[in-house]
Structure to design on (352 residues):
């Protein structure tokens, strides 16, 4: 009897050993075949999206277009990505945030991407240092205004224009300084006569720059087609600096500009645009403009203007970002003017 009991015990132990061996074999097989499970070093597409900020659609498009990433498949035939590919995707996203185009960098190795990222970080640090220095210069300009140093203000603005060039001066000095002076006046830190002094000095400087640009264009009559642009504001908009800065950049971009100044009735804008055979009507809107007046005015202008004449609306009025209007191009930043002019020229080069 004892021998039978020992036999059953041995049989049970043998079954246990076999079971453990089978489990071990199955575990080994799963580890050797990533398609059957998701080991810790494989990430599903949803996890990769969360980790890198690259959408699932982007990952799939890159896979087809660039041959990267190269996902494996899990037991449910879903995409899974090795850690090495996720790390590269992180680098790609970082570089794209810095302005790189995916078609130019996806094929590069991780080492090459790391080098680009390091260079980008260095450039960003330099840019921050430049921005910090520029903030100090802007603060200095406000102080010159506040302390009534008109000659020093004029000399400083002129020096910045000569050092930076017209485009960067408008974008990096004139535009933010215009905002700063307006905010300082609203807080009571500047008097109205001080704000007017800045406006007059900047106006004189930009008008001189526009005249110089016009003389250069006149000396070289041949070249790319030049759009004729009529610039003005609606009757409710008294601010002129935004319009003047836009005119400066348009002239620099090769436009033939004609400004009516500020506060022009819509009917007169239509008449002037027809009389001067313009290609574009450009309008400037400051934050003080009532949103309903902006939208109604643009819709009225569009309905009465020749369909072939484009309307470009720019400025910091909130209405321009809240609602897209049919056949009205919105330019929310001064820096967008150059690209808009180039696009117009490309569309019309063949027609002329």
């Amino acid at each position: 009897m004892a021998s039978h009991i020992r036999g059953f015990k041995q049989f049970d132990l043998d079954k246990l050993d076999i079971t453990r061996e089978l489990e071990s074999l199955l575990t080994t097989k799963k580890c050797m075949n990533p398609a059957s499970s998701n080991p810790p070093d494989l990430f599903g597409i949803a996890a990769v999206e969360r980790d890198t900020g690259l959408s699932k659609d982007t990952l799939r498009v890159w896979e087809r277009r660039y041959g990267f990433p190269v996902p494996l498949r899990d037991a449910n035939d879903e995409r899974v990505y090795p850690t090495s590919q996720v790390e590269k995707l992180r680098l790609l996203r970082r570089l794209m945030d810095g302005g790189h185009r995916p078609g130019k960098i996806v094929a590069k190795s991780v080492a090459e991407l790391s080098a680009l990222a390091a260079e980008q970080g260095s450039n960003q640090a330099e840019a921050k240092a430049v921005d910090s220095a520029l903030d100090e210069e802007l603060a200095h300009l406000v102080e010159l205004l506040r302390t009534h140093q008109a000659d020093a203000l004029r000399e400083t603005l002129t020096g910045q224009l000569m050092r930076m060039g017209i485009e960067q001066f408008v974008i990096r000095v004139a535009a933010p300084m215009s905002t700063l002076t307006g905010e300082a006046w609203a807080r009571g830190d500047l008097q109205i006569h001080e704000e007017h002094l800045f406006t007059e000095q900047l106006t004189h400087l930009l008008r001189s720059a526009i005249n110089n640009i016009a003389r250069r264009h006149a000396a070289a009559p041949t070249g790319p087609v030049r759009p004729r642009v009529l610039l003005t504001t609606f009757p409710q908009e008294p601010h002129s600096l935004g319009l003047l800065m836009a005119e400066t950049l348009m002239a620099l971009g090769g436009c033939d500009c004609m400004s009516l100044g500020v506060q022009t009735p819509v009917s007169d804008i239509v008449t002037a645009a027809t009389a001067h055979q313009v290609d574009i009507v450009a309008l400037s809107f400051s934050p003080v403009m009532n949103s309903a007046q902006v939208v109604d005015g643009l819709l009225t202008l569009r309905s009465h203007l020749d369909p072939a004449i484009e309307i470009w609306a720019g400025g910091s009025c909130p209405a321009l970002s809240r609602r897209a209007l049919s056949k009205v191009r919105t330019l929310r930043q001064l820096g967008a003017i150059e690209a808009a002019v180039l696009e117009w020229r490309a569309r019309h080069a063949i027609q002329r």
About this structure: The chain has three domains: 29-120, 130-209, 223-348. The CA atoms of residues 111 and 333 lie 36 Å apart. The beta strands are 42-44, 72-73, 79-82, 228-232, 256-259, 280-285, 310-315, 328-331. DSSP finds 14 helices and eight strands in the chain.
